[in-house]
Amino acid sequence: MRRLPADRVDRAGFTLIEILLAVAVALIALLPLGLMFMAGARTAADAAERERAVLVARQALAAVEAYAAEHRAGGGELDFGMNVGSRPARVEGRAAGRLAAELAYWGYRCQIDRDPGWYAPAGDSGGLYRVTISVEHESGGRTREVLRVKTLLGDR
User: Does the residue 141 lie in any domain?
Assistant: First the structure.
C-alpha cells in the first residue's frame, strides 16, 4: 500500500481561524437576544414595583375614606392641608406574609385640600376634597416617589 506525502493528507476538522470566526458570528447573533432578555426582566421588575405601589395607594385611599367617614359621622369637617404619612401595618390577601415583608420599605404621604373648583350652594356645608397620595419606596438609605395618585373625595 502506498502512503501519501504529509502535505497531501486530508485532515478532518476546522482551523483555528474558522472556529474563531464561528464564535464571533454566534456572539453577534446572541447579543441582541441577551439585551432583549435584560430589558424584559427590567420591565417585569418595574411592573412588580408599580403593582406594590398601587396596593399601598389603595390602602392609603381606604384610610382616607375611613377618616372622612369618621369626621362626617361626628359632624366635623376634614382638616384642610392635612398631611399624613404612614407605613402599611396590615396586608390582606394571598401571600400576605411575604408581601408584608416586602412592603416594610413602602410608605405613603397623603395631602387633603378643599377643591378650589367646588362652589357649594348657599347653606350647604358639604364639598369636594382633593386627595393626593404619594407612594414612596425606601431602598439603599434613600426614599423615592414611585406613584402619585390624585382623586376627589366627596364630603357625603
Answer: yes
114-153: pLDDT as tens digits: 766 666 555 555 567 788 888 888 888 888 888 898 888 7
Q: Does residue 42 sit within a domain?
A: no
* Average pLDDT score over residue span 81-93: 46
DSSP string for residues in the chain: -PPPPGGGPPPPS--HHHHHHHHHHHHHHHHHHHHHHHHHHHHHHHHHHHHHHHHHHHHHHHHHHHHHHHHHHTTPPPPTTEEEEE------STTHHHHHHHGGGEEEEEEEEE-TT--PPTT----EEEEEEEEEEEETTEEEEEEEEEEEEE--
Say how many domains are in the chain: 1
Residue 106 · residue 135 · CB < 8 Å: yes
Query: What gap in Å lies between CA 150 and CA 156, rounded to an integer?
Result: 19
- Is residue 18 one of the residues assigned to a domain? no
Task: Please name which of 111, 113, 22, 125 lies closest in space to residue 60, comparing C-alpha atoms.
Answer: 111
83 is in which domain, residue-wise? 49-154
- Arithmetic mean of pLDDT, 80-95: 46
